[in-house]
Amino acid sequence: MTPPARAQAAIELLDAILIAARDGGAAADTLIARYFKTRRYAGARDRRAVRDLIYRAIRRAGERPASGRAAMIGLARDDAEVAGWFDGSPHGPAAIEPAEPFARVGVAPAWLTKRLAATLDADELPTLLGRAPLDIRVNRLKTTRAEVLATLPEAEPTPLAPDGLRLPDGTNVETLEPWAEGLIEVQDEGSQLVARAARAAPGMTVVDLCAGAGGKSLVLAADMAGQGRLVACDADRARLSRLAPRAVRAGATVETRLLDSGRERDALADLVGVSDVVLVDAPCSGTGTWRRNPEARWRLTPDRIARLVTLQAHLLDVAAVLVRPGGHLVHIVCSLLDEEGPGQVAAFLDRNPDWRADPLPIREGSPCGAGRRLTPARDGTDGFFVARLARPC
Description:
Rossmann fold
């Protein structure tokens, strides 16, 4: 593909990504993979170049652009080389007209930037759209970080998480022998840290109420050293189905339980009042993960965030019933909005005045309400809020 042809491919894909962001469709990575699956003529260099153009254009634009062409013209205004590809050549984009619309530079839509500015300093906002490092977690059920380092000399220990390693960007982790043997899993360093806030230990009964594909469930399994009962739950069948093969590869014993949204208590009756720890990695705005999914900020609306806050409160109430006297509930969101983190915990404690917030077993991040917050700017991780709540004896 010529450079102009790559620019035109990026425009076409950006159009699809913008529609998906508006209508709740597939993620950008999925759309890019589908596009090139039917275009075998595009080589690996072409795919990388087009992908780079797409994500540069997405990260640059705060408001959702009017079109893929507007997004790419915005990028062209900052990059003379890209501007030169709008030359009307075969398979390339038409020349830019003087009055054509273009995407403006920004961190996020204005209403969302205003909310984040109440939480973060102005110089922290741009870091939400930086490139995330490639972190992996060493599976202590099978090995140690030192042993994996001996087999992966290109890896470096992460600065905060004791089981974390960082690989060079672009590494295909699933082709590595330690991955095939279940010795490592891809997981952001911040995600590793907040999961350990549960203090899961051998012999406990632990519930991961919103397990998804099970990244944090596998951290809990390692902390439990294969002893005790670990129940991973989710209302999304497709996501939960991905946990079983991961658990087998990791050598972890994990029960999975599909929940009916709004009727979770029916499926959890046997766990009421007997769980040592219940972890609620709640569905959230994902404002802490834009380094990986920058188009996600165009999917958010005030109404969607309000619905997520309501859902989070419901899930915390479901979780609280499961906790035994003296046990703990851990609230986690990959969000930097106060209403999903410290505000959510404060509301829970107002509803349950006999509960208390306990000190966290992690010292990374910064104090935030009754918990701690990790941010890309301060900690180099994805953005997270975590709090550990204790039920009275």
